Structures are given as structure tokens and as C-alpha cells.
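Human:
Focus on the backbone:
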Amino acid sequence: MANNLDWYLDRAKENMSFSSDRKLNLALGYSGNSIVYMRKKGVLPSPEKMVKISELAGIDPAVALMDFAIWNSDGKAKKTYATILQKITQTTAIVVLFLTSIVPYSANAASDFDNNCKAKGASLYLMERKGCFSY
């Protein structure tokens, strides 16, 4: 399910440590009470402002724009955008799991290079062969 605009605005305020919608309003370059108006009337920002909101919130702009597309769509288009967003989220989770599984090995390799190869004057450490080489 797509997050709503209030969720993004709240995340932006929290991430930037803003104490009010007014401060968020100014950070987005709005004059007046645009954020309050969006919250009360359900008016959506422009796609460009949505990207800025997501950046302030610390959220991937691609995901935010997919949510934005869902909010602006009906019927089959809305369902299709929701499916795309779900696939992006699932793919991202898989990539994160993969990367977290290889980081300890990479850190060990860097440690091996620092501890073993630098003393030998080597400039390269090959993990698979576990050896120090100069080139």
C-alpha cells in the first residue's frame, strides 16, 4: 500500500528536525500555508516538490514518485503503479540482503591486505587466491 502525503510530510519534518509545518513550508520554497492547505484539502504538490519532500524525508525519490503516481491514478493504472512499487520494494530488499551478506567477507579481505600485504610492499590482494601481488 502506498504511503500518503501526510506520511511523507511527517517524515520530512522528523528527518529535518523541524518543529512545525511552517518550517517545512519554507524549506520547500512555499509561501503562505501551502503545507497546511495540502494536509486539510488533500491538494497534492507538483512532482518536483514531491521529489524535494522525499529528499528532506530521506526517502528514495523514485519510490515517492511511484506513490505520487498512485495518488493521481484510478482503476487499472492505480493498480499497475502499486504493483510496480511493490516490485521495486521487493528488489531493493533482495539487493540489501545480498550486500549485507558480502560486507563481512570484503571487510576481512581489506583487513588481510592491511595486515599481510602492505608489509610485503604489495599493491593488490586477491581474495580468491588469498595472495599478495605487486603490479
